[in-house]
Structure formats: structure tokens, C-alpha cells
Write a structure and sequence with these properties.
Elements (H helix, E strand, L loop, with lengths): L4 E12 L2 E12 L3 E6 L5 H8 L9 E6 L2 E2 L6 H8 L1 E4 L11 H5 L6 E2 L2 E2 L1 H14 L15 H13 L5 E5 L7 H16 L3 E5 L3 H7 L2 E6 L2 E7 L5 H9 L17 E12 L2 E15 L3 E6 L5 H8 L5 E9 L2 E2 L5 H7 L1 E4 L3 H5 L6 H7 L2 H4 L7 H14 L16 H13 L5 E5 L7 H16 L3 E5 L3 H7 L2 E6 L2 E7 L5 H8 L5
Parallel strand pairs: 3-10, 3-11, 6-9, 9-10, 15-20, 15-21, 18-19, 19-20
Antiparallel strand pairs: 1-2, 1-4, 4-5, 7-8, 11-12, 13-14, 13-16, 16-17, 21-22
The chain binds adenosine-5'-triphosphate and magnesium ion.
Length: 509
């Protein structure tokens, strides 16, 4: 036994029907290190973490895992067992119960009891202790659904840590966090490291590896490519290991020639439908040309997603302003009406109204546009299949079959299905809300190419993004939002990260 290592993976292999998710995975994790795990969508990262945390018990995979000097053999109630042994996981998708309090969630299923009843005082006191140990600023009594995504993520971590974890697994913890929240998380990880906790960290935001990890393991197609000290690596080297080839540019050059204005929003003012005293949009002005990509930047909570939902008739109550599409005013009362008018949306939340997880990939892609494929009274199955397949292939969705259920796809591949689905609809205006969140570099490039193709065909594209690099790399013009209003619209030639940030934070206007 080498006590330097808290974890040793030895030839771990995991087969799903038709998919070899992991093939002879071997590497070691040092005690107390922050170990990054990096790889394209479908590389096998989450599957490996699910084996470690007991979602797939001993016997459902081949090979061995040595944990703290002993072979890990998790049985039937293996998730419980793993956490009792000190292996804690924060999953890629949030798993909290929204209607319960922070404390109830942290101790869900193992509430402290006194005789027959739950000892609520102890539950809340213990929760408070855990939260303050790690500098998490959340009230134990707060109901989960009242918290922002960032705080929810903190609660997930508190929950994971409430059982004296030795190893903490974080599977893409920052994909929904704002920059300030990411900063906070990095601080928490440093605190954990100081407490001697080992951390396994997965992310698609490659820069984060360099802020926090000691070593990185790169995976590709279910195999380990390398494990290296972070200081020997760079973003370029990581990308090369991940995709197995050189990638010279992150953003493909388009030959876009923006034409006349097709979509216009003037002086839009909208109220929170549940609280009329709150203006969610307070003076939004912009237009988009045919064949143009307009980027929308802004901090979390600046009103970007609220704008989209309002344009789709799904959220804000419009009290002033006009929405003009191809010269005519439109007033969509629902997403259906907006789509019929010629708007299309790649939504931010893929689980919410993006996908039907228990249907096949093909069905999901064609679902939004059945009328496009329906002949006289019946759906033209062949045409549907062909168009959907073409779309799925162009985004390199990694799956054994396009008949597979969406829930069996890796997180990033699910997002590609959402995008495929909406790209098929031939819209006048395509709105994309954070389209590449959780997507690996190779597939991002494919999505950018698709955006260029669509714009060259004359589609006006509005792209909301939290990644400034992406906004600067792909847009013709950039609208910056701040507190529900458009703080400025910049041609990309005049834009820079600093200029965008100063508009977004309200420092300049
Ligand atoms: N329950 C399942 N049934 C069938 N196939 C699965 C299942 N879970 C995962 N897979 C497949 O195993 C492979 C690895 O998936 P995994 O979720 O581990 O990828 P990942 O590296 O976490 O990707 P991402 O970055 O997109 O989250 C993928 O091809 C995926 O489709
Ligand atoms: Mg994953």
C-alpha cells in the first residue's frame, strides 16, 4: 500500500448496452490534492465518478478501485455506503428538493432523531455549523427554491461534506455559476484542501483547471490519455490531449454579410408577473440584421434570460415598447405563437423545456417541427429521420444509436440534442441562450460553424453568453445588459472584455 495515494483506479472498464464507456482506466489520486479530470463530452468522466460514488456498484464494472488502501466493493445500498466511507459527490445536475429547507436537504434521509421525532434544533444547528466551517453564507432555514443557482450549488457541497468526506467529487460545479460565485467556490476548495480533503474536479471551463488543480487526468473515448502535474500543462496542451489533434483556432471565420434589419425591440418595459412592483426589463433597445450575429452579454441577473422569456410570451408582462419582426409588430402570448411568427429558441435550461428525457434522440430532435414533416394527415417518417440524422451527425452526438433514450446521453451530448432540435426549424430569428454551456471545445467549434452557416443563409442570430471570449469571438455586434436595460450596443471591433465589463457593471454607459 502506498499511503501517498487515497485512490487508485486499476483497469476500470464499464460497458453499457452498445457503449463501452470506460476502457482500462488506470490512474492514482494523491492524498489531499485537487485532481482535475478533463475530456470531451462522452469521454466517460461522469461514469467513472458514478462508479466511485456507488451509483454503479461493485460487480457492474470490471477492474479495481483501491480507496484508502483497501479495495472498494460497494454493494446494494452502495450510494449510502460510499458516503459513509467518506466519498462525497456533487452531481452534474442539481439534486436538491426545491420545496424543502437548506437544513432538511443537507440531512435528507438521515435526520437526527430523539426517540421517535426529528430533532429540528440539532438539525439546524448542525447545518449551521457545516455551513460556517466552509464559509458558506446561506441560512439553514431558507427554502431551496428561493436561492439562486450559486447558493444551491453551495448547499449541494455542504450536503456532500456533512458526513466527514475524505474525497469530494465535483462534476461540473461551475457551469451555472456567475464569476463571483466561481471565485467563492475556488476559495471553498482551497479551504477544503487545507482541511486535508482530496478533491476530484471536472469542468469544461479549461481555465479553471489552472486556477485550482494540482494535477490533471485527461480522458478520451473512455481511456486515460495522460495524468500530469498542472504546471506542465497549458490550455493548448489540454485541448490537444482531449481531442487528439491540434486545434488552431477556437472560433471559425464566417463570411457573414449582414443585410437589412429584420428584428427590432424598442423601449421594452416588462414587469415581473408575480410582483408588479418589480421591473424585470426597464428599457431594452436593439435590432438585429439578416445574417448577423448579435451577442448579448451581461452579468447573472442582468435580465438576459428574462428578455428571452418575455420575447417568447412566457414570462414578463409587457407594459411598454414594441417588438417588430420583418417590419410588423408582433405580440406573442406564448412560445407557440412566437415560433409561428418566426422566432426560434435554444433554451438555457435543457432539462426544463429543452428535452423529453425518456424519448429517443431522433424523436426529440424532430419534436418541435412535426408540422414541417407532416404530409397529408400523416407524418413522413422518412423525411423526419433523414433531417434529424443529418443534424445529429453534424454535431457529433456521441451515442450507440439515435434510437437511444436521451437520458442515457452524457450531459454535453444532451445539450447538442437541444440545439439540433431548434436548428431544424428554419427560423427568421434564432435566439440561443448560453448555447455552449457544458459543451466541450471540439463540439463548441461545430456549433459555431453551424451558427455561421445559418447566418450566411440569412438567419438573424441572437446569442446570449456568459463567456466573454465567445461573445467577442462570434458576434458582429454586442449588446450589453445591466439591471434590466440595454447599457450599450458595440460593434465587435470596438469591444473588449474591459469595455463590456464596465458596461455590464454599470461603471460606464
Ligand atoms: N445509463 C447509460 N446508459 C447507456 N449509455 C450511457 C449511460 N450513461 C452514460 N452512457 C454513455 O457512456 C459514455 C460516457 O458518458 P459520460 O456521462 O461518462 O460522459 P462525460 O465524460 O461525463 O461527458 P459530459 O462532459 O458530456 O458530461 C457516453 O457515450 C454516454 O452516452
Ligand atoms: Mg458528465
Amino acid at each position: 500500500m502506498d499511503s501517498n495515494f487515497i485512490l487508485e483506479f486499476k483497469d476500470v472498464t464499464k460497458q453499457f448496452p452498445g457503449v463501452l464507456a470506460l476502457k482500462d482506466v488506470s490512474f492514482e489520486v494523491r492524498r489531499g490534492e485537487i485532481h482535475g479530470i478533463c475530456g470531451e463530452n462522452g469521454a466517460g468522466k461522469s461514469t467513472l465518478m458514478k462508479i466511485l460514488s456507488g451509483v454503479y456498484p461493485h460487480g457492474t464494472y470490471e477492474g479495481k478501485i483501491i480507496f484508502d488502501g483497501e479495495e472498494l466493493k460497494l454493494g446494494e445500498s452502495s450510494i449510502r455506503e460510499a458516503s459513509e466511507k467518506g466519498i462525497a459527490i456533487v452531481y452534474q445536475e442539481l439534486t436538491l428538493v426545491p420545496t424543502m429547507s437548506v437544513g432538511e436537504n443537507v440531512f435528507l434521509g438521515r435526520e437526527p432523531v430523539e426517540g421517535q421525532t426529528i430533532n429540528w434544533n440539532k438539525l439546524y444547528a448542525d447545518t449551521k455549523q457545516i455551513l460556517s466551517n466552509y464559509g458558506l453564507n446561506v441560512s439553514p432555514q431558507e427554502i431551496i427554491k428561493n436561492l439562486g443557482v450559486g447558493k444551491m450549488q453551495m448547499v449541494e457541497i455542504a450536503k456532500a461534506l456533512s458526513e466527514d468526506a475524505k474525497v469530494l467529487i465535483l462534476d461540473e460545479p461551475t457551469s451555472a455559476l456567475s464569476e463571483a460565485e466561481v471565485e467563492k467556490l475556488m476559495d471553498i476548495l482551497k479551504t477544503l484542501k487545507a482541511h486535508g480533503i482530496t478533491c476530484l474536479y471536472i469542468t469544461h471551463k479549461l481555465e479553471e483547471f489552472f486556477r485550482i488543480t494540482d494535477r490533471i487526468t485527461v480522458m478520451r473515448d473512455g481511456k486515460v490519455v495522460v495524468t500530469e502535474p498542472t504546471e506542465n500543462l497549458s490550455v493548448e496542451k489540454l485541448v490537444r490531449h482531449m481531442v487528439g489533434r491540434e486545434m488552431k483556432e477556437r472560433f471559425p471565420k464566417g463570411k457573414r454579410k449582414p443585410g437589412e434589419v429584420v428584428f427590432e425591440v424598442n423601449d421594452l418595459l416588462a414587469l415581473d408577473p408575480n410582483d408588479a412592483s418589480h421591473k424585470v426589463l426597464n428599457g431594452v433597445n436593439f435590432n438585429v440584421r439578416r445574417g448577423e450575429i448579435l451577442g448579448i452579454a451581461g452579468l447573472m441577473g442582468s435580465g438576459r434570460t428574462e428578455l428571452v422569456m418575455t420575447l417568447f410570451g412566457e414570462y414578463g408582462k409587457i407594459v411598454n415598447g414594441k417588438i417588430m419582426l420583418e417590419g410588423k409588430e408582433i405580440k406573442p402570448q406564448s412560445a407557440r405563437e412566437a415560433i409561428d411568427a418566426g422566432l426560434s429558441l435554444v433554451p438555457e435550461d435543457r432539462k426544463g423545456f429543452g428535452l423529453v428525457l425518456i424519448q429517443s434522440i431522433l424523436k426529440n430532435i424532430s419534436l418541435a417541427h412535426l408540422n414541417q414533416f407532416s404530409g397529408f394527415l400523416r407524418i413522413d417518417a422518412d423525411a423526419e429521420l433523414k433531417a434529424s440524422l443529418k443534424q445529429a451527425k453534424s454535431l457529433t452526438i456521441k451515442t450507440s444509436s439515435f434510437e437511444a433514450l436521451v437520458e442515457t446521453l452524457s450531459g454535453g451530448n444532451q445539450q447538442k440534442v437541444v440545439i439540433s432540435k431548434w436548428l431544424l426549424s428554419n427560423p427568421v430569428v434564432l435566439i440561443m441562450d448560453d448555447p455552449t454551456r457544458g459543451i466541450d471545445v471540439g463540439a463548441k467549434y461545430e456549433i459555431y460553424k453551424l451558427m455561421n452557416d445559418l447566418a450566411e443563409k440569412g438567419v438573424a442570430i441572437i446569442m446570449i453568453s456568459s463567456e466573454l471570449q465567445e461573445v467577442l469571438g462570434m458576434s458582429d455586434r454586442i449588446m450589453v445588459m445591466c439591471r434590466g436595460r440595454s447599457a450599450g450596443v458595440l460593434p465587435v471591433q470596438e469591444a473588449s472584455e474591459e469595455r463590456i465589463m464596465s458596461l455590464a457593471t454599470g461603471i460606464s454607459s
